[in-house]
Specification:
Blueprint lengths: L1 H9 L4 E6 L6 E6 L7 E2 L2 E4 L4 H18 L4 E8 L7 H18 L1 E2 L8 H11 L7 H8 L3 H15 L18 H21 L7 E5 L3 H13 L2 E7 L2 E9 L1 H10 L11 E2 H7 L7 E4 L8 H9 L4 E3 L15 H7 L3 E3 L1 H4 L2 H10 L7 H22 L6 H13 L1
Helix pairs in contact: 2-14, 2-16, 3-4, 3-5, 6-14, 7-8, 7-15, 8-9, 14-15, 15-16
Length: 408
């Protein structure tokens, strides 16, 4: 696996598009790792301090993710080095999408990502630049559809991603109009845990869980884990967190979800960040869902959790471990050898899978059909890993081997 991984990591990307904003200090990159299957896909993110290397590593991660989520295309990513809280953000994004629109028409498909919203920014801004849909390049490059077929499938995509959830099993509050895009990634993170216990043995019900990050992914993961009967005992967010060793009730988690301010946890009795960052890793827990930014989890934190009985990690963040390596650094390897580690390209593939689902010819547009499709995709990936390695260790290593054999 390591030889395959080294070969994959060291291979230069096929296309690197570099942009300097003429009106601000913003700088952006689109990295297309390969045009496997004639196209490539990956979201657009923005953060201060982002660099080309981060975009490259995420593009390679996306390519691995497509081996699970489909379609069989290359990985790509866009990243803009700019402060998303700057009032000039809108103008930066509009100029960025205009600059990158020829790629989006031909062979690259994008979506929302860190600090860039799929529905309110990506879709309207790409349309403004003459792109039918942010995934148009994937249609043209990979599917080569007829015009009529393209119109039909783009219609499915447009309708599907922004579809308001009507089923109370999937929405925390149907009156609040949560969409598929709001909930699907966190749903997949929780479903990965449920399928893990079903396949490897055990039951999610009654298991204690810690969630890191309370944005779209973390909040939804906490919500669905709690709905399954897991007990969320701790949540750590950027500015602080909360702990309840007995586990928060489903109603309490639901309230926290509905009260969050954008991507931030809002709760009474919030423990300051430095204090909770000392305490939370020592809590007795079986499930850990890292859903914050990439490269945060240290070896010490993982060691403390293992000592308190950690069983499974379901990654909501891409590359959650504080390794410098693109994929499989020493902290991730250490973790994978000691607990069941479901890799990000399986557990957080929900949004990528939704795109793939809506690109198929004619699909059901119900909440159940959309969410079940993501659940089955994750289940099949975990089952495939189990069929190749039935032990509860080295799950990520096995999953990478399966993926890399398709790419190299």
């Amino acid at each position: 696996m390591k030889e395959l991984l080294k070969k994959y990591e060291e291979k230069d990307p096929e296309i690197v598009f570099h942009w300097n904003d003429p009106e601000t200090e913003a700088e952006g990159w689109t990295v297309i790792n390969s045009l496997r299957g004639g196209a490539a896909g990956g979201g657009t993110r923005m953060r201060k301090g982002l660099d080309a290397n981060e975009v490259l590593s995420l593009a390679k991660t996306m390519e691995v993710k497509f081996t699970v989520a489909g379609p069989a295309i290359g990985g790509a990513k866009s990243g803009i080095n700019f402060d998303p809280s700057d009032p000039r953000k809108k103008g930066v994004l509009e100029r960025w999408f205009k600059a990158v629109s020829p790629l989006l028409k031909a062979y690259y498909g994008t979506g929302g990502d860190l600090n860039v919203d799929e529905i309110h920014e990506v879709i309207p801004m790409t349309e403004q630049s003459g792109v039918w849909h942010p995934q148009e390049g994937v249609f043209n490059g990979h599917f080569s559809p007829t015009e009529a077929d393209k119109i039909n499938r783009i219609g499915q995509l447009r309708q599907g991603v922004i579809k308001v959830l009507e089923n109370v099993n999937f929405s925390p509050d149907v009156s609040r109009k949560y969409t598929v895009a709001d909930m699907i990634t966190g749903y997949g993170v929780a479903e990965a845990v449920r399928h893990y216990y079903d396949i490897y043995g055990g039951n999610v019900k009654g298991k204690r869980a810690i969630v890191q990050g309370f944005g779209n992914v973390g909040a939804a993961a906490a919500y669905y884990l709690s709905q399954m009967g897991a007990k969320v005992v701790g949540i750590i967010d950027r500015d602080g967190g909360i702990i309840n060793k007995e586990g928060f009730s489903f109603e309490e988690i639901k309230r926290l979800f509905l009260k969050k301010n954008g991507n931030t946890l809002v709760a009474e009795n919030m423990i300051p960040f430095d204090e909770i960052n000392e305490k939370i890793w020592k809590l007795e827990t079986e499930i850990f869902a890292p859903c914050a930014a990439s490269r945060l989890i240290t070896k010490e934190q993982i060691s403390e959790m293992i000592e308190t009985g950690l069983e499974v990690i379901s990654c909501g963040a891409n590359v959650p471990f504080a390794d410098k390596e693109i994929f499989f650094g020493p902290i991730m390897e250490y973790t994978d050898e000691r607990v069941s580690l479901i890799p990000d390209f399986v557990s957080n593939c929900g949004m990528a899978r939704v795109f793939a689902y809506f690109m198929e010819r004619k699909v059901q547009m119900t909440d159940e059909a959309i969410f079940n499709d993501t659940s089955i995709t994750i289940k099949n990936a975990i089952q495939n890993t189990f069929d190749n390695n039935s032990t509860k260790r080295n799950i990520s290593k096995t999953a990478f081997e399966i993926a890399l054999k398709q790419l190299i």
